[in-house]
C-alpha cells in the first residue's frame, strides 16, 4: 500500500537523498553487508500473565537458531523480564525492555531505571516508541532516556516514524526533527550502542500489508542522510536502521532485502511463537 502517487516528485526526493549521502563517484548506496541483522520482538503489554509468557518463551527456546544468524532480542513486559533474562542460560536470545526511566533519581515512583534493567541482564531497550510518544513523551524526554541508557551500557533502539504522509514531504521534516532532537547530546563514543527503528505509525498493528519496500528503501536513505548530518559520514552510516510496522512471515524477507534495512522490530507477529519462528527462518 503506497501512499505516494506515482509522481515525479517522489522520484526526485529519492534521487536527491541518494546524491546527498553518496556523493560524487558513488552512484549507489553500498550493498548491505551480510552482517547479523537485529530482530526485535516487542511484546508490548502482552500476555496477561507469566504462565502465558512462559508458554510463548518455551516454544521459542525450541527454535533451532543454529541456522538463524541474526541477533534475536525478546522485549517482554518488565514484569516477566527477570523470569527469562536471569534464568535463561541458552544464550540464543538477548533480552530488552520496552522503555526506561528518564530519571536516575530513586525518588521516582513507578519508574524502572537503566541501571535496574542492566542488573536484570537486559542488553537492549526500546526508546521513543510511538505508543509511548502518544502518551506525551517528547523528543527531549526521549533524548534524556537515551543518554541514561547508553551511559549504563544498554543498547538503544530509538523509534521514529510519522503519523501520516503527505505529498509535500512534510513527514520527512518531521522524522528529521525527531532524530535531531532525540539524539540531542548523544556522545559519539556510544555510537555502537545505537539503532534506529523506522516505524511509520500508520503501518503499525495493521496485521497485513505494510509499507512498500521501495518506500522503506527511500526512508532508509533519508534517515542515513540525517544521521550523517548529525554525526559525520562514517559514524552516521554506521548506525543500523531497522524497520517495524506489521511485519509478518509474508513480508519480512522482502522488507529486509528491498528496503536494505538491518533488522526488524516485530509486535503482534512476535507473540505467536510459531509465526515468529517462521519469520526468523525466512530471513
Ligand atoms: P506490529 O508492531 O508489528 O504489531 O505492527 C510493531 C511495533 O509497534 O513495534
Write up this protein:
- The chain has 283 residues and is of the alpha/beta class.
- It is built from eleven helices and eight strands.
- The chain has an eight-stranded parallel β-barrel with strand order 1-2-3-4-5-6-7-8, surrounded by five helices.
- β2, α3 and β3 form a beta-alpha-beta unit.
- α2 runs parallel beside α11.
- The chain is globular and about 50 Å long.
- The chain starts with 7 loop residues before the first helix and ends with a helix.
- The N terminus is likely disordered.
- The protein binds 2-phosphoglycolic acid (PGA).
- The site of 2-phosphoglycolic acid has 13 residues, from β8.
For the structure shown, list the relevant keywords.
single chain, about 280 residues, alpha/beta, 8-stranded parallel β-barrel, 11 helices, 8 strands, about 40% helix, globular, disordered N terminus, binds 2-phosphoglycolic acid
Largest sheet properties: 8 strands, parallel, barrel
Structural class: alpha/beta
Bound molecules: 2-phosphoglycolic acid
Mean pLDDT: 89
Estimate what percentage of residues fall within beta strands: 5-15%
SSE ordering: HEHEHEHEHHEHEHHEHEH
Number-wise, the strands total 8
Strands side by side in the biggest sheet? 1-2-3-4-5-6-7-8
